[in-house]
Amino acid sequence: MSRLASKWQLTLATSALALTGVTLPAVAQDAPERRTIEVITVTAQQREESLQDVPLSMAAYDEVALKNAGVKDIKDLMSLAPGLMVTSTQSETITTARIRGIGTVGDNFGLESSVGVYIDGVFRSRNGVSFQDIGEIAGIEVLRGPQGTLFGKNTSAGVLNISTVAPDMDEFGGHLEGTFGDYGYRRISGGITGPIVEDQLAFRLFAVKGDRDGYMDLVVDDGSSTTVQDSETQDYYSIRGQLLWTPNDQVSGRIIADYSNRDEMCCSAVQWDYTAAAAAFVNSVGGQAAFPADPDARIGFSNRPFVQDIQDWGISGEFDFELGFGTLTSVTAFRNWENSRSQDIDYSSADLAYRDVDNNYTDLDRFSQEFRLQGVNGKLDWLIGGFFSREDLKLSDGIRFGADWEPYLGRLLTAGTVPPLGTPAGVSATISNVTFGGVNIPPGFAIPGGTGVNQDNYDQSATSWAIFTHNSYALTERLTLTAGLRYTHEKKELEADFSTTSPLGCGALEQAFGYDPVAGFVAAATQANAPDATIAGGARAIGLICLPYARSGLDSTGYDQSRTDKEVSGTIRLDYQFNDDVMGYAGFSRGFKAGGFNLDRQFNGTVTATGIQDVNSGFAPEIVDAYEIGFKSQLFDDVVRLNANLFYQTIDDFQLNSFTGTAFVVESIEEIKSKGLELDFYYLPPIDGLEFTGGYAYVDAQYGDNITNTGLAGKTISLSPENFFTLAMTYEREIFDGYYGLFSVDGRWVTDYNTGSDLDPEKAQDGFGMINARLGLSREDQAWSIELWGKNLTDETYAQVAFDAFGQGSRAGDGSSNGARSTASYAAFLGAPRTWGVTLRTEW
Questions:
Q1: Range name among 20-29, 577-586, 608-617 with the lowest pLDDT average
Q2: Which of 94-108, 171-185, 322-336 has the lowest mean pLDDT?
Q3: DSSP string of 350-379, one letter each residue
Q4: Which of 238, 426, 652, 662 is most buried, taking the most CB atoms under 10 A from its CB?
């Protein structure tokens, strides 16, 4: 920690000197009027208080800051929040947020999010479920580190707490906004609000419609024709209605209902780092993939289009009851989220494997109820609460082989023995060899197109309840002790049934060697004294012929599993008010995320003559212990806000979801250590209308040295840059009578990081920066405004996530990142390119 402390001290000293240097002239000028920083009111501790009074690491962004930065969803927030990473992969619904390097890969719906997202007090159980155009955002709070004694659902890495604008009880008003940009971008939104019953009932209604052409060119070759289509399109609409009810001085409440729909073509991938061998094999069956890889061209390949269809709706009610001795708060919510999508799994125009939109969908229902009772009794500020949720998740999946898979695999299996790239009949020849001539299937019949998963259905329920308390006691006028405790009880039950249209080739191998054909072959070949090289080669070949989507061993057994997790977690903190401007704090908190089940085919059960029984697809809970010490300050006569902290975290049984090139695998990593520094500042220079906001985060998050997965041991975890820098400048002032000009620019820079869960070196992303800007003109009364904006102005091409291209090469040795690359090839989901546009707005 000495190196970290030195870096912290150097950063703070540099910041203080720089800020002192620019503010001293303002003092010398003795200006008659001096701007000071306004209090930012937050609700991180479930009560309204100043950001500077909350003894934990957090950042808060109000409506104006979010509007100037063009923040519409949680991914946009990265431009302002240091240490925050948000990425999307196969679908924009598969979105993952990470804080301090910790987050849950979103490709598997069996895993809940380490970073919790709350919108208007309602928890969204997967980050992707909260990915949408939120609309009228009143503010966003980024709470770093474990949270659980204040929010309904426990989270192990942090919380994004989002609030929307409430109805106006005093007068009628509204706004209309139209945005038009390149790539055919159009976004039309509007809202209206006002009283219904004076001082008792008010409403707010908001709606938005957006669409955009794609910023990827997708070359689609369906076998009979080749077309170029837009990919990464947008086509969505959303509506939200609210009622604010205050029947008397003792009761107030807000009811919110919303509905969203997205029907888009997303998401394709580019070739990121390809080998000549992989490209040659794809070309050998008439497919096409970019070689050499050229991500900057933003061209993807497919033999079928991508479909993304999402519906999301919910209703919630939050009511406060003043009881004299305290306030009782009730938050009740029900949400439904449905998604169906198609996918060309190999991301090339060869027809290797795919998901069809009709058999790949998710349906997520969630009911939650939270009660909080809080009050003040002398020196004690107390809160007790209870939380209950019931989630029902239905997921259906069906990965099938394309018509090119058998000849493609045949060439792979016989490459080097039948020059130059093997033979399309190689699957049949291999099956004959490994069965010692006992099974002979005509070429073209071993793995026909359309075989594979007929339909896999997962039905998971999760029932969670908790009781929690969070209390602050003023030990002295300056010293306060805060302590919280939580008990969580969570039960998950999973039933799954499997249906396989088993290819003739894999069916024959299962018949010959059992429902685990690889193990059966190894046993038989060993008994026959076959050479080790023959056994290893045969086992690898059978594993490729009988990929998980071809095996039928689960069809007659399915899954029937349950697990219960219980945990006590909490926090304890001390904060000391050195003076009116500086507060220091130190604390410990424990976070908890329940275990769950891998919602994918898994074959680790008992192999019998009728199938594979007693499969255990479960994984352990994730436990985070976090230590934090920091300060909050307002300096130089309240023109500088400077907050900073050091943190150290250990994560036990981190839930890691990895794509191996053929399937997703969930494993519990025994230990991760994350330490670092977080700094946020806000500065008002002696120029009216000018302000600066920025931050820095140093994050060193590494796997333990002695973990079971030796390929990851001691390495920096994925998607965790060591350094984050953010800086935003806004200048707004009157340029002539009644008219104001706006110039806003924000930038983000991160150092290099690896985007892959398995840390293959080829999945690395170099450090890069992004700049966004906005130039506007408006009337003082906001009757109209016009803004010209641009995002990613330097047009940086970067990978959100790079991944193993399906079936297109492999690493040598054990296949881990420690092995030689060999023929392994990689594709990637890219971030958005440079975009620009104009926004017209009117308010009344």
A1: 20-29
A2: 94-108
A3: S--EEE-GGG-EEEEEEEEEEEEEEEEETT
A4: 426
- Measure the CA–CA gap between 783 and 781, rounded to whole angstroms: 5
Q: Which own/partner pairs from 483-487 qualify as long-range (CB within 8 Å, at least 24 positions apart)?
A: 483/570, 483/571, 483/572, 483/573, 484/148, 484/149, 484/150, 484/570, 484/571, 484/572, 485/149, 485/568, 485/569, 485/570, 486/148, 486/149, 486/154, 486/568, 486/569, 486/570, 486/592, 487/566, 487/567, 487/568
Where residue 444 falls among pLDDT bands split at 50, 70, 90? very high
For residue range 495-526, list pLDDT tens digits in order. 999 999 999 999 999 999 999 999 999 999 99
What distance lies between CA 428 and its chain's CA centroid? Answer: 43
Backbone angles phi, psi at 24, to 5 degrees: -60, -40
- Which 3 state secondary structure label does DSSP give 154? coil
Two tokens, residue 796: 């940086």
Torsion sign (Cα): 18, 21, 27, 29: negative
Q: What pLDDT was estimated at residue 75?
A: 87
Is residue 400 a contact partner of residue 433, using CB atoms and an 8 Å limit?
Answer: no
Is 169 within 8 Å of 246 (Cβ atoms)?
yes
Spatial CA neighbour of 498 closest among 422, 412, 427, 560:
560
DSSP 79: G
**Of 8, 15, 143, 23, whose CA–CA distance to 636 is shortest?**
23
How many angstroms separate the CA atoms of 19 and 686, rounded? Answer: 12
Three-state secondary-structure class, residue 348: coil
Provide the token pair at 435.
């069965």
Residue 2 phi/psi, 5-degree rounding, is -65, -40
pTM of the shown model: 0.90
First to last CA, the chain: 54
State the residue for tokens 């069916």. 507
Using a CB cutoff of 8 Å and minimum separation of 24, what contacts does 516-521 make?
Answer: 516/553, 516/603, 516/607, 516/612, 517/542, 517/546, 517/551, 518/542, 518/543, 518/546, 519/607, 521/434
Q: Which of 134-148, 457-471, 773-787 has the lowest mean pLDDT?
A: 134-148
Cβ-proximal residues to 681 (8 Å cutoff; 6+ apart), any chain: 15, 19, 640, 641, 642, 643, 692, 693, 694, 695
| Nearest one of 724, 701, 560, 607 to 83, comparing CA atoms | 724
Whose structure tokens read 């150092």? 751
How many angstroms separate the CA atoms of 260 and 117, rounded?
17
Total length of the chain: 844
Rounded Cα–Cα distance for residues 262 and 250 (Å)? 40
Tens digits of residue pLDDT in 623-632: 999 999 999 9
Q: Is 9 exposed, middle or buried (0-12, 13-18, 19+ CB in 10 A)?
A: exposed
pLDDT band at 1 (very low <50, low <70, confident <90, very high): very low
Between vectors from CA 332 to CA 331 and to CA 337, what angle results, nearest 5°? 125
Domains and CATH numbers, the chain: 2-403+454-502+552-821+831-843 (2.40.170.20), 405-447+503-544 (no CATH)
* Residue-wise pLDDT tens digits, 26-83: 333 444 466 777 777 777 676 777 888 889 999 999 999 999 998 988 889 999 999 9
| pLDDT value, residue 657 | 83
Q: What are the phi and psi torsion angles at 136 (to 5°)?
A: -80, 85
Cβ neighbours, 10 Å, residue 826: 26
User: According to the model, what pLDDT value does residue 34 have?
Assistant: 66
d(C-alpha 393, C-alpha 410), whole Å: 38
d(CA 744, CA 417): 63
547: helix, coil or strand?
Answer: coil
Collapse the DSSP code of 76 into the 3-class scheme (helix H, G, I; strand E, B; otherwise coil) and give the result: helix
Percentage of residues in the chain with pLDDT exceeding 70? 95
At a CB cut-off of 8 Å and minimum separation 6, what does 584 contact?
Answer: 575, 576, 578, 629, 630, 631
